[in-house]
Every structure is written in structure tokens, then in C-alpha cells.
């Protein structure tokens, strides 16, 4: 069994030295990591094929296989993601504000690393490079524990990143890999309080629930996306069709895809046949009684359907009487990830923005844009669906904390 305590000690020591690197030094190393990935595409693809063969043998869901598969283009995208991080401003050392108090102390609030970040994730090798790059730039050591589905892919990626650090004279222990995918080791990692400052799970609802219930290390909850689009009575219906089709079908296996649409009763008779025609039987429709009146191929929705992140070509549909009913449904069933309204009514849009409880709320746009890269953060560590300590796509700043720095001139408190 892997010695997590040893990994933790190595990470803690590396974090202390990593936090002292200059932005120029970190950027040089990150650029070298990106170059290494591109130079070693054949090694990466060879290991990825092992994972794909096992996935097909075990009849893994096709949408999960899509997340798992690497290609020359996807490896290039991983390298590009790291280079994007190079272009971002280093948050460390930034003093957000300074002021003098009544004792004439000069007080500042400065950005510092979290320390050692643990990440537990599933069948997405790109998380390995995204997380490693962001943690490195923000001065954090990282311990990565991927799922068994992507074991060989994750291992070769971390090995290449570590080789780059060693080749440039730096400790490889700022990026480490847990090469044991057992539940026992995962549980041990969730309780590694002495060495981990924060734990970030990335994956499906079951993984995130298990981490929340088991971990004693502070957790940032990310990922699960039971997302909705509300088609308001004042929506432009062709626009609404385009947005729904994109949000559901462009890549259904990701957390910013939608799972349910809510349609105002006044436009349901016109909108739903248009949508069904555009979907061309590609998506299974699970609908309430009112929606069935306007659709040819649909099956009744169950209570479970409203609660489910399908991550597949399945869409739940409900006809609602009002925007208030839509908002109530969303706030009851959503996972606080991404929600959208399609409307030309300004007051409806503002009501939706203010009353819907989610990390990202859209007016007249697809939820597929909830992404750290799209938001300008470079690669993302995840999309936080909680309110502490970060919310929404997590870039560099979300991987930092603050400390107060205080300058005095001999003051004592009386």
C-alpha cells in the first residue's frame, strides 16, 4: 500500500519552497511542462490505450469513455491549457488593500498559497494537467488521486511533469500521484489532516457525496451539475431552441450541460414541437403530463428524473405556469451549478438572476460557458458549487488564501 504519510511530508516540504519561487521561475517551468507533454504524445497515447481497452472491456458508458480518451488534439489542448496559465498574472504576494487604523498601524491583506491541495477525481486525464498547472502557479503542492479508469493516463502525465521539474533542478514532489485506486487509500487521503490543507473532489454525485461524508480535511465541493434552462413566455423561440440544443447535445457528459428544461405554458405548444424536430430523436425526452400533449416521442418523467444529473442524451421537460414556479423548481432540485433563462423581458431576467441560487446564472446563453478557460481564468481546478471558500469556476485566485501583514513603529496595545 502506498505511504500517504510520506507523500504528505514530501508535499509539505515542497510547498514551502514552491511558495518562494518567482513568477518568472514558475512560468519557465510551466512552459517546459507544456513542451514535455507535446514531445511525449506517443508515450501518453500508449498509456491511454491501456485505459481505453479496460474501459471497453468493462462496458463503461460511452460518454465516460469520451471523457477518458486522449488524442493528439486533446494532448495539444492540455499543453495549451498550461501555457494559458503562464500568461495569467501570479496572484501570490498581491496586497489587495492597505489601510491605517486608529493606532497608526499600516495593515495589508496579502495573497498566499493554500499549501498542499489534495484532488480526488474520476475518468478525466485533463484534470491531471489542469490541476497540476494551476496549483503550481499558485504556489501549492498537489497530491492527485485519479480513478482507476484513467490510471495509466494519469500516471504517465504526472511522471512527465515530475521529469520536467527534476530536469530543471527542482523537487518533483510539488506534483505527486497516488498510484493506488483502492477505497481504503482514498479514505485515508480524506483524513490526511496533518498534511492536506484542502481536498477537492471532481466527479459524479456519488464521489462528491462520499468525500463530503468521509473527509475530515476541509472540502471544496465541485462538479455535480443538475442544470436547467427556463423558456420564458417572452423568449425568442428560435434562440431558445439553439440554446437548449447546444446546452444538451454539444457534450452531454460534462457538468455544465443541462438536464432539465422548464417551459412557460403560454409558449409550450409552439416551442416543444420545434425543439423535438431539432433534436431529431437524438435525445430521449422524459416529460410531465402537460409537455406530453405537444410531443410525439416522449415518456413520462418520474420524481427521480428531476433530481438526476444524466450526463447523457436524456432531457427532462416540465411545463410551468409562471416564472415563480420555474424558480421554485430550480432552487429545489438544482445542484447550485449553472442555470439559464431565455427571455426578452428585462424584469423577468433580473428576477431570475436575483432569485436563482447557483454559482453561474445566465440570460439568453448556454450553460456550456461555465468554464474557467472561457471565463478567462486559464485552466480550472473545478467549478465550486458551494459558497465557502470559492464559488463557480476556480482559477488561480481561488487557490489562494490571505494573511494580514502589519507594519508598526513600536505601538503597544493599552
Automatic annotation (TrEMBL):
Its main location: cytoplasm. InterPro entries: Ald_DH/histidinol_DH, Ald_DH_C, Ald_DH_N, Aldehyde_DH_dom, G-glutamylP_reductase_CS, Glu-5-SA_DH, GPR_dom. Catalyzes the NADPH-dependent reduction of L-glutamate 5-phosphate into L-glutamate 5-semialdehyde and phosphate. The product spontaneously undergoes cyclization to form 1-pyrroline-5-carboxylate. One of its GO terms (cellular component) is cytoplasm. Its EC number is 1.2.1.41. The keyword Transcription regulation does not apply. Residues 9-281, 306-403 form the Aldehyde dehydrogenase domain. It is found in: Cytoplasm. It catalyses: L-glutamate 5-semialdehyde + phosphate + NADP(+) = L-glutamyl 5-phosphate + NADPH + H(+). PANTHER family: DELTA-1-PYRROLINE-5-CARBOXYLATE SYNTHASE (PTHR11063:SF8), GLUTAMATE SEMIALDEHYDE DEHYDROGENASE (PTHR11063). Belongs to the gamma-glutamyl phosphate reductase family. The keyword Zinc-finger does not apply. Keywords: Amino-acid biosynthesis, Cytoplasm, NADP, Oxidoreductase, Proline biosynthesis. This is Gamma-glutamyl phosphate reductase. GO terms for molecular function: glutamate-5-semialdehyde dehydrogenase activity; NADP binding. GO terms for biological process: L-proline biosynthetic process. It comes from Enterococcus gallinarum. Pathway: Amino-acid biosynthesis; L-proline biosynthesis; L-glutamate 5-semialdehyde from L-glutamate: step 2/2. It holds the Pfam family Aldedh. It is an enzyme of class 1 (oxidoreductase).
